[in-house]
Amino acid sequence: MSEKFGSLKYLSSQTAKRIELLIQYIDELDISYDIYYGYPIIDESDHKEYVKGFIITCYGILILYEHEEEKNTFASCFLNHITNDSSLMMISMNFDKYIRFIDLSIISEYMNENLFIKVLFSDEEILKINRAIQKSYNLTKDDQREILHQNSLGAQIKKRNTFIGKYDSTQFNMVHTPIESHQRIRGLAGSGKTILMLKKLAFLHYNNPNLNLAFVFYTISLKSSLIKQFESFYRDYDRYGEPDMSKVNILHAWGGNTKGFYSDLCDRNNFKRRTFNEAKDLSENLIDPFEYTCKELNEYLKSTGFEGLYDYVFVDEAQDFGINFFHLCLSSLRTKTDGVLNTKKSGFLIYAYDELQSLKEETTIPSKIEIFGNEEKCKDINLKISYRTTVEVLTTAHAIGLGIYRDVENEENPLVNYVEESNFLDMGYKNKYGDFSKGSLVCLYRDEEKSDISIPDPLEFKNEKEQYKYLSDMIINFVNNEDVLPSDIMIIDLDERYLRKNHKNFSNIFYEKLSHNQYENNIRVRLMDKNTPNRTTIENELIFTSIYRAKGNEANLVIIINCNSVPLSSRNSLNRNKIFTAMTRSKWLVWLLGQNMDDFKSEIQKVRNNNYMLEYKSPTDEELKKIKLLSAEEEKIDTTTTNIEKMLDNLPEDVIKKLLAKHINKE
Predict the structure, then answer these.
(1) Name one GO molecular function term (predicted).
(2) Which residues, other chains included, contact 235 with Cβ-Cβ below 8 Å and sequence gap of 6+?
(3) Which end of the chain has less neighbouring CB within 10 Å, N or C?
(4) Alpha helices (runs of H) in 63-138, residue ranges in sequence order
């Protein structure tokens, strides 16, 4: 199997033709290879060059050039790539053995000789060379933990963290290919959407430092880590330079006390920005408050003839935004910039999403036609591989998220959420039966290698106190006997209304048990909520958070507590989205704890019994209407119930009793 990384569009047409001729020759020999071309490097004179080609085969490495002075530049670049991996030092020490130069200006002369004679590299070495060229070390985590117990949980995590990974060509080329239209990026949880978007932002800024760029996100706690990651990725292209952050705007969508995408557009156009409470009152609960503010601002910008601000707008977590936000993004694009291809707006919108991670009941991801209309082009890029979540956890999370194995009566369709079957194929699933017609049986599976771990059975408790006692013992055992670090663990509390109270109750029990165990190290249970959103990882801390703060984060071990707060018996699709999002924060294992856990046990066991395949009947048009209707009705009931509970929290007990008595006695 061969893969092509990069873009010939950054090279001259003559150079591209020569490279294509060489590729055709190698293809005819039926030799597997990876080729990298057309991505930028900096030479010793601080001059930008575009790589003509590195071809990686088991028979050695070919470095392509056209002019004599390029030989040293490209060879030096390649050696700089591989110096980060000491196990590849033999290539530098025996350059002539492993590397051969190919002069593209006389490419036809190489067609009559055998370039591939002796096998020099193993599959693992080829993987390492690819990883070094791609600088895909962010797929691997440096794990220096000391392993005291063979086959422990910590040993499994260390092995998982230090695996040798590389991007596939779709992911690499998403970053390094010129943007010639709007782009919609659909990806699984853990497929690297955010990282790849930031890499693309860095690549674009490096290639075109005068462009005005915006990167917009939903989860406010991500800001500091997003900026840090962007700066790191920029240095992959420019080792000694710094990005111009006056041209790169990494912004929360709304912006409160700090600059945000919406608030900055308001300030620049002398338009009164709305607070959340103002927007909520003005929208009269008929529309999401942020959607209201976006529509109001967009109408104002159109009335003033606003010519735009940004050349490109990147939107991460796009599943949490509505149509008015997307239209505001389009209005923010500049109307005139040289060198950018578009008939209406000069800039482009690039947005990434996973529709099952939406945690807003009022919002569904708009279609391309709704966003752009019929005249604007928008390219689809589908990221099919999850680098974070194991196959077992991912398929189980999808099964629960969609309601595939939900217990139902008679011939009722169990689905609560619905994703177009073609979207599943775009996400890397395959259909065992091949047929997606309405009413037909579908069996979806993934062909990535399984991790051979099984999701532990959900744990049921009589009350929260018993749950927190068990959880405390569980964590202490992990740290004492399983080589687990506190920073490996994230506790996600699904009862987010009482997050602070639950954190306090759990912490009291946990710290008391720590003192009884005479544990030497000070483990801290850090609350991550809207008031303390810092995501910095500290070795002796484990995170206690809500699903809204967990989104965009990850941990080796995820423990989901108070699962009974989102009952699976409900048709509320938002509840199942929460479970899906929580489970897919996990890089290795996930536990589910709570009261009344029979439904969780049943659905997870059915996934196991089906060997982690998703088998269901594709809904008919009539069934699909019913699924959407029932889901909307239950979401409305649950929202009303939650609002009533919030009001009751602020009332004295005797007043609540009077209200209940009054309404219960009503006919």
Answers:
(1) ATP binding
(2) 241
(3) C
(4) 68-82, 89-93, 95-98, 123-134
Q: Which of 398, 408, 481 has the alpha carbon at shortest distance from 444?
A: 398
Unique residue bearing structure tokens 């509970």: 645
Q: Is 601 helix (H, G, I), strand (E, B) or coil?
A: helix
pTM for this structure? 0.80
Query: What mean pLDDT is predicted for residues 148-168?
Result: 84
Give strand pairing partners of 615: 443
- Residue 541's φ and ψ, nearest 5 degrees, are -115, 140
Helix, strand, or coil here: 118? Answer: coil
Phi, psi of 578 (to 5 degrees): -65, -45
Nearest to 460 by CA among 554, 574, 592, 363: 592
What stretches of 208-275 show up as alpha helix (H) in DSSP? 223-237, 261-268
Could you tell me the strand order of the sheet in which 586-594 lies?
459-460, 586-594, 555-561, 489-493, 541-546, 524-528
- Torsion sign (Cα): 577, 580, 584, 590: positive
Q: Which two tokens stand for residue 138?
A: 């962010």
Range list of H helices, 254-331: 261-268, 276-283, 289-304, 323-331
Q: Which tokens hold the place of 565?
A: 């707060």
> Within a 10 A sphere around the Cβ of 94, how many other Cβ atoms?
11
**By CB neighbour count within 10 A (0-12 exposed, 13-18 middle, 19+ buried), where does 644 fall?**
exposed
Q: Please give the span between the terminal C-alpha atoms of the chain, in angstroms, as a whole number.
A: 73
Residue 505 is encoded by which pair of tokens? 């109750």
Tokens of 461: 């408790």
pLDDT (tens digit, 9 = 90+) per residue, 432-479?
887 778 878 889 999 887 777 888 999 999 999 999 999 999 999 999
Q: What does the alpha-carbon distance between residue 278 and residue 272 come to, in Å, rounded to a whole number?
A: 11
Please give, one letter per residue, the 3-state secondary structure of 636-654.
Answer: HHHHHHHHHHHHHHCCCHH
Closest listed residue to residue 110, CA positions, set 118, 101, 119: 101
Q: Rounded distance, CA 572 to CA 314, Å?
A: 31
Distances (CA, A) of 367 to 317, 382, 445, 546, 652: 15, 15, 26, 29, 47
Taken in order of first residue, the domains within the chain and their CATH numbers are 3-134 (no CATH), 169-383 (3.40.50.300), 390-638 (3.40.50)
Contacts of 667 (CB under 8 A, 6+ apart): none
